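Case study.
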Amino acid sequence: MRRTRQLLCILLAGVVLAGCGLGGGGDESAQRVTIYTGRTQNLIEPILERFAKETGIDVDVRYGQSSDLALLIDEEGGRTPADVFLSQTPSAVGYLDHKGRLGRLPDDVLSLVPPTARADDGSWVGFSGRKRVLVYNPAKVPAATLPRSVLDMTGPQWKGRVGIAPPNASFQDFVSAMRVKLGDDATSRWLKGMADNDAFTFANNTAIVAAVGRGEIDVGLVNHYYVLQAKAENPSFSALNHDFPSDDLGNLLIVTAASIVKGSKHTEEATALVRYLLQEDAQRYFSDQTYEYPLAAGVAPSSALPPMSFDQVEGVDFDRLGGDLESTRALIRAAGLEG
Amino acid sequence: MAIAELATATPVIPALPKGPAAPRPPLFLRVTALATALLFAAPVGYVLWRALGLGADVGQLVDEIGPPLWRTVQLAVLTSTTTALLGTGLAWLLVRTDLPGRSVLRGLAPLPLVFPSFVGAAAFIAGLAPGGALRGALELVGVDAPARFRGLGPSWLVLTLFTYPYVYLPVAARLRALPPSWEESARLLGDTPRRLFGRVILPHLRRAILGGGLLVFLYSLSEFGAVQLLGFDTLTRVIYATRLVDRAQSFGAASVLLVLAVVVVLAERRMAGASLAVGRSADRQNRPVALGRWRWPALAGVVAVLFVGLVVPLLSLGQWALRGLTAGNGPGANLADELGSLRLPAFATAQLGLGAGVLTVVAVFPSAYLCARYRSRLAGIVSAAVLGGFAMPGLVIALSLVFWSLNVPGFDRFYQSVPLLLAAYVVHFGSQAMRATELAVAAVPDRLRESARLLGASPMRRATSLEAPLMRPGLLAAVGLVLLATVKELPATLLLAPTRVDTLSTRLWKSFEEGFLAEAGLASLALVAVSGLLTWLLVLRRAHHLA
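After joint prediction, the assembly is written out as follows.
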């Protein structure tokens, strides 16, 4: 009993110390930038650390889901500590832009990327790209039978075999792109076709890739780099990427976006960071380390990826979709696919 | 019947609801309890304010949430029912029978509670995949594992396995506290163990079962991560899916969840009745019920539950970690580096958990005191305010705290600091501490307090030398329960922790989110180890104080 009491005293002392230790604030006068990022730590931290080291600017990072962080910035309003918001998807920056929470990036930063990879009003700029692919289990699907177009996935040969992730932002961006390219009616028909074809719905890309690897479903519509990641950890993982032809909608490139939060007190540092992400070094990092498609500085994609330059991709101007995610979601729901 | 009467007549446990100790709670207590209830109701205020302010479209709301709401209710009812059965059954087998190996099993039985539910679900799915532990075990007994593991059934199973300790812990404690004289009398009067259980023991477990079942019910309402992975579409999915594109809808759905939670809390309070009678008879051990030929089948059942709830997830997590270490070249390939990088998060996790545990018990104490010692309308309101918070998804709690701390003058300097994060934990998990704290308060018998008063002990002396020592074990158990919930918490931690403060659960999420399973496996194992150790220190060793 006495020993327990001692132990508890030590633990409680630890708590008090925690209160002091964890609460340690920084030096306000120093050069610093606070980043809210929907890109997860593994994907972005190394490059942020490199930026801090090279520029001497202190970097404070808050990680979370892009949507949650967008809600947080909106709720914080004028008092947000965030200077920079890095989003996994154009929709979360689109939401904040719509709410008037984003500042404007300088033209010389915006012009580093092709026009389709940035907001027309200059509120955000894309800094890397993920490609949509069809992940398949080679044990269940012979390569010769793989579809030519994502629009073929509603055919009877795919009944009950396809996984999709309607709640996932990338899937919603893909549907938005389809609306731009083919119109709402054709998009509705495709979504209904998927629902009638007993497509399996999953929470996100990782869940689909895992299910394909297990053989639970045969194919799934996801972003390209999850399979590469799964195979790096587990070489016997039974899944491969199938790329749709470059002119197909299924081959869409979805950008990750950087933006400066309106009212930031560290605009200079924030701009320096966004510019840094678009320099050759950083672009090469995204290409080689996270297997993403570089968008700037003439950097070529990693040799592990099917070659593709941004100009080749069917460019979809995500900017036009920013405020209209609600209609996209309504279409998905109306088709009977919950999202 | 004779035995039941005999039992209720024993002086050790006043079994029937007693009248109030005082007709009306003192003003000071009423004011403090009401003030803390207000703190707990802060998220409720925020949700209603937003839902009304954004003008949720009731027609659209009804149209969209009908089916998910029905699924949520199904899941919550099924899960709380099965956890009540499973938790009670396990508790009886492990506490009151001669089951072989019961002392070891007693220590293991509450541990499934330490898994964050999304990790549990993912580990379970992996366990059923080809090469997974669960599939292998099923094949051994000649059963083919299902090709898919999703929908109501699997969600029900997974939630049951990871939440039954909410029932098991209080029921086991209550069983341990029941006096052995009853069983002896029953035996002398020739009653069978089954009759004894149904007529004498069960009525005394009612409150513990209901209280635990209520926590499971509320937990199922707020659950998102696991059901999402298991492809079961509930009301929390509506809250999450609409959070950006249709905020009115999102807050409307959250309001519905809240109303449901309050109704259930009040219903449980009514069903549980007034009896909070607690008796202890620590001096004498009960003679265990002989299971006879049921010994081995019963043991097999208990082991099967623990295998599925504890061993299967651990094996899956271990497999992920091992795969990263042996085959991989990605993150998670270097064990020493990985473990080193988990050291600081592990400390932060333990510290935040203990801090939240202590603060939560302090915060609910006035409310618990009021609810345990007085029957008043106020007690019902306070109880609903404290317990309702458990039904809200963590994201909603976090956003409400953002709102309040930035909009109440003077509080903005605590924004994204440790105190605010702790406040979020207190509000979210007050429910877990509430029942255990009520029971701690009730552990001081009225007779003793009365005697002390008559003997002329000053209020201060009564508090330090009578009340505090008797309450302490129960209060520590309450700290432990909150701690367990805190170390797994994710959304509030991500949004409200100071930057650069990493916990094991945030580390786990960051790896899991992008499919870095090796790292996620290691972080999960660390989380299980830390919370297992702390649980053992705080809860298990004093589990008998929970009833």
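Observations recorded in class. Residues 20-445+458-546 of chain B form a domain with the MetI-like fold fold (CATH 1.10.3720.10). Chain B has one domain: 20-445+458-546. We will return to this complex in the next lecture.
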